[in-house]
Every structure is written in structure tokens, then in C-alpha cells.
Amino acid sequence: MAKQHETTPRIGILWRGDRTVESPAPRPDRQLESLFDAFGKLPVTTVLIPFADDSVDDVREEVLSCDGVLVWVNPIQDGANRAHVDEILREASAVGVFVSARPDTIGKLGTKEVLFRTKELGWGSDTVLYLSSSEFAQRFPSRLASRRRLVVKQGRGNGGEGVWKVELIDENATDVQPDSIIRVQDARWRDGSSQTTPLAAFIARCEKYFAWSGCIVDQVFQDRLSDGMMRCYLSRNQVVGFCHQWPKGLLDFDPNEQPPLAEPTRTVMEGPDTPAYQRLRALAETEWVPQMQELLGIATESLPVIWDADFLYGPKTDAGADTYVLCEINVSAVWPFPPMASDTVANAALEGTVAARSTRGAGSGG
Fold first, then answer.
1. Where in the sequence is the domain holding 292, given as residue range(s)?
2. Burial class (CB in 10 A: 0-12, 13-18, 19+), 357
3. 336 domain residue, yes or no
């Protein structure tokens, strides 16, 4: 652990990486250079900690030698999950290391269950939560019969893993049975392709997702998906930037026509003062995030130093104004993020680390 007489806080940067190279660093496409520059202006020592599942003890020792740690490890990556990472972070947090984001915070904020828990807030939509495969098999068919098409999401995932658009083939069907044929469109397929399958086969396919992610949710499909998605970046409860993206995976297409060609995702990072997003910013900062914190029991100091909420356009109001629907919150590995946010992120990390360090020092006396 960090020695109490050391004056410079040590902040670890932890990611899933190669521990065999001489000078490990996050890949250039993670775009953390501006964050390292921001830390360089502060009285901190940064410690690079690549994580590998076969080096858990070494990683634990390195994390516990720090006063704080910022973490970028996806829920699912290259066939591995972050169970070992979460174990280390729980241990570190228990002994007073500042962790962003703590596993308990991720459990409240960074899983798809948050879509159900906060569905009554202004960003919410018609959403159902399933806590077991048997509950999903029992309730989902009638839900699909009434809504006709739904977006189904496993509780923990990234990159479109375990996200599908599911719709009935027979538009006139009123009684959905296990052998009813559905069309399934995987969010990872960027070319608009889909497959047809019996409903029972899709439900069986989803059983494995409960073991790792703990739940499945479904949401009504948003008809304005082609208008894009607004990624709203936050540091704790402060909006620090935006990125307007155009996800392709679940777009509608005519199955009798050639599927649309996949296009590169545009990832232009914009600052928090960008005029086009000021209504969304105001709603997030003054209404939705405070309401979410109260509902989920998350103190401001427990919010991650960098996280994002992804919004789709909902139906326009009678006056023609846009509405916004939350489709995901990302906490586990938010990178890249707007470079103009780096100073705010670094200062929030230092603030949290200093506060945690003082608590460790107070608790170790006597």
C-alpha cells in the first residue's frame, strides 16, 4: 500500500493490456494522451497498470500500492469478463483506495437494468426487466405480441454484444407461440442483415446471458434511430462533452432490397457548450442525473470521474420539440472521451484520491 508519509498521490491507470512489453501503455486509439497531459499539470504520480487474468496477484499488489485508480476494462472483451478486476477493485475500495468506478456503482449505474429502474424519469421509455431465463420465457412472448417489435439487451455488455431488435414476421398475429417466427437483427451486424428463427430458439439463445449479466431488459424500438445517437459525457454530475453518432446495427431496412452498406461511425467530439446540445445538457444536469442519484442512492462523490449516457431521439412533442430516450449508460471503459474534458476528469480524480487518502490516514492512526 502507499506509505502515509508520501506527499504525492499515486493514481493508477488500469486497462486490459499486455503485461509482457517493456513499457506498457493503452493503445493510441484510446486517446488518453490529453488525460496524461492533464495529470502532468497536477501534483500526482501516474502508475500504468495493464491487467491480465493470469496476473491477478501482481495487479492486485500494484493497485493496492496506489492511492487512487481509474479503470478502463470492458464487461466483455476477447471472450473474457471483468470478474477478477471487480474482485481487486472491491478489495482496494475496502481499504481506502479511491476507485473510479467502484463495482457497486457500476452495478447500479452501468448495467442495462438502469433502463428499467429509471424508466419513470424524463429520459425513460416503455421498458421491462427479466431476472431469470424462466421469467423471460414466460413473459416475453406476450410482451412481443403487444408491442410487435422490441430491442432486447443483456444486462452487461459492450460493442453491441447481446443487443437485438426482435420483431414478429406475421403482422396480423395476435397469439404468439414458441413456434412463431420472428426476425432478429443483431446490433453487431453493421450491414442491416437479419435472420428469421422460431421465438423459442431465440429465448433459448438468451439463457446464457443471465449467468453473467444477471438480467435482460427490453425496450420499445425508437423510430428516429436513423437521426443518430447523442453520447453525453459526464464527470460526476457535470456534462463535459458530446459526440453525435449514427449507429447502424438496428436500422430498419426492406428485406427484399439490398441491405445498406455499413458506413464508418462518425466520432466528432464536441465540448459541453456546443449550442446544439444545450437543452439536453440542461435536462441531464438539472433534472435527470440528480433524480437518478436520488432514486438509485448514488452520492455525487461516488459517481465516476468519466462516464456517458447515450440518448436516442424520442417522438417530437406537439410543439415540434425533440425528446430524448436513454438507451445505455457506459461506465466500465469510457474511451475515447472528449479531450477538452481531460482537465476536469484529472482534477476530479485527484480530488477523490486526496479525500480517500485522508480517510486512510485518519483510520490508520493510534
1. 109-113+224-331
2. buried
3. no
Task: Answer with the one of 191, 220, 249 that is the final residue of a domain.
Answer: 220
Query: Can you tell me whether residue 349 is helix, strand or coil?
Result: helix
Q: Which residues pair with 14 in a beta bridge?
A: 49, 71
Q: Are residues 24 and 93 in the same domain?
A: yes
CA 342 to each of CA 43, 128, 339: distance values in angstroms, whole numbers, following the listed order: 15, 36, 5
Amino acid at 196: T
- Whether residue 139 is found in the same domain as residue 59: no
Whether residues 186 and 88 fall in one domain:
no
Of the candidates 175, 220, 183, the one whose C-alpha atom is nearest the C-alpha of residue 202 is 183
Distance CA 73, CA 123 (A): 27
pLDDT in tens, 266-291: 568 999 999 999 999 999 999 999 99
pTM of the model: 0.92
pLDDT for 175-231, tens place per residue?
Answer: 899 999 999 999 988 777 899 999 999 999 999 999 878 999 999 999 999 999 999
In angstroms, the Cα distances linking 191 to 139, 206, 225, 257, 339 are 31, 23, 15, 12, 31
* E-only strand ranges, 45-162: 45-51, 68-72, 76-77, 80-81, 98-100, 127-130, 149-154
Greatest Cα-to-Cα distance within the chain, rounded to the nearest angstrom: 76
Half-sphere exposure of 109 (CA within 13 A, CB side): 32
User: What is the chain's Cα-based Rg?
Assistant: 22
Is the residue at 338 inside a domain?
no
CATH number of 63's domain: 3.40.50
Q: Read off the CATH number of the domain in which 314 is found.
A: 3.30.470
